[in-house]
Design brief:
This protein is mostly helical. Helix content is about 65%, strand content about 5%. The chain has 15 helices and 5 strands. The radius of gyration is 30 Å and the shape is elongated. The termini are far apart.
């Protein structure tokens, strides 16, 4: 049975992506690989925590014995308990008690799983869309033969159609009105995925505050300040209270009795640490996504950035200090265009550096030869019917 479960788990997209070649940048993998892995571990820890200790324990009246005590614990677990500070009076108003309810601790595993799902969704979009472009980036990165890689890139870039107006290329890229023949299909999808990673990481931060009912934006800092500076590990926290109150009604012989019992939530000790770690991790991922998106947008808008990147790779592969800058600029803008440069960047970030430089050298060499052949054909006079 365990072998069957292990085999089935290996078929999950996230498990399979761990073994597949990388076809994106490190900031992207922070989202769909490391964040998903971290959140799955958190969900597993919270799910398995009841094996180590009780989820909830309630201090019940003396007449509650046997089934009464078990019923009280189960009822208070599935219904939302509420938190009132120990130095405050328990309110009599039902509204005030409901307003103080905390209802996230039962759903903690599902909260982590939903976070993990939304971190992985942009990755699914990227894989499904880039394979439709006519070139599989994972297959390309897995190859170590520069001739095969150069041939694949040439086949992809060859049918591209020039668009001399910068404004048209820019708006096609930004608003995804693109295609393989315009040379910006992959770039448009890549920017959209980067933007989704950025928005998702921000929404995850907002979601943590909404779920936990936090008024400010410094939840994680407040928790860790209380733990490490004030050393208040055992004191009750308004975010993750250990001691809560629970109202229950028991019908006995036609009479409805209302009880208020005090409960201890050991699971909140664990939830506090996991949600604090998740808050700090989301902050780090959000900042990484922000810089990555801005750099990608800059590289998309500024042709000089792409030309410099290709130029640096080409200079590394040649020993001559004299380089035809005009040819290199024309090669980058008219032949590679947006998609070709992006493919080479992905190859550069995920493969050996020398492989990317060799591929660029081979592509420039082939492009220069074809340009010379076209120049010869244009300068060679054609025989007309009158010359025969």
């Amino acid at each position: 049975m365990s072998i069957k479960l292990f085999t089935t788990a290996q078929g999950f997209p996230w498990i399979k992506s761990l073994k597949a070649p990388n076809d994106d940048e490190h900031s992207d993998r922070l989202n769909h690989r490391y964040s998903v892995g971290f959140l799955l571990i958190c969900a597993s820890i919270v799910t398995g925590a009841p094996i180590a200790f009780e989820r909830i324990t309630c201090w019940v009246p003396a007449q509650f014995v046997g089934a009464y005590s078990t019923y009280t614990k189960n009822y208070c677990w599935i219904s939302n308990t509420y938190y009132i500070p120990s130095n405050a009076t328990v309110p009599h108003s039902k509204y005030d008690r409901e307003h103080a309810e905390i209802g996230y601790y039962q759903w903690a595993p599902f909260i982590f799983l939903s976070f993990a799902l939304f971190f992985y969704l942009p990755r699914m979009l990227w894989r499904s869309m880039n394979t439709r472009s006519g070139i599989d980036l994972q297959y390309l990165v897995s190859k170590d033969d520069k001739n095969i890689i150069a041939q694949l890139i040439e086949c992809y870039c060859q049918p591209n159609k020039q668009d001399v107006l910068f404004s048209r290329r820019f708006f096609r890229t930004i608003f995804c009105t693109s295609g393989k023949r315009f040379g910006n299909y992959l770039r448009s999808i890549y920017i959209m995925v980067k933007f989704l990673y950025l928005i998702n990481s921000f929404i995850q931060l907002v979601a943590i505050h909404i779920v936990l009912g936090q008024p400010g934006w410094f939840y994680g800092i407040d928790v860790w300040y209380n733990v490490f500076v004030r050393n208040s590990v055992l004191t009750d926290s308004p975010f993750f209270p250990r001691v809560t109150l629970c109202d229950l009604r028991i019908r006995e012989v036609g009479n409805l009795h209302r009880y208020t019992v005090q409960c201890v939530l050991p699971i909140n000790m664990l939830n506090e640490k996991l949600f604090s770690l998740a808050w700090f991790w989301f902050i780090y991922v959000f900042i990484s996504n922000l810089f990555s998106f801005l750099f990608t947008l800059y590289d998309t808008i500024m042709a000089s950035s792409r030309i410099n990147f290709i130029g640096n790779l080409y200079r590394t592969s040649v020993s001559s200090p004299f380089i035809n800058e005009t040819l290199l600029k024309k090669f980058t803008q008219d032949f590679l265009m947006q998609d070709g440069v992006l493919i080479l960047k992905i190859l550069y970030h995920n493969g050996p550096v020398f492989l990317a430089t060799d591929v660029v050298h081979l592509l420039v060499k082939n492009y220069e030869r074809k340009q010379q052949e076209e120049g010869v054909r244009k300068t060679t006079p054609q025989l007309g019917s009158s010359d025969v």
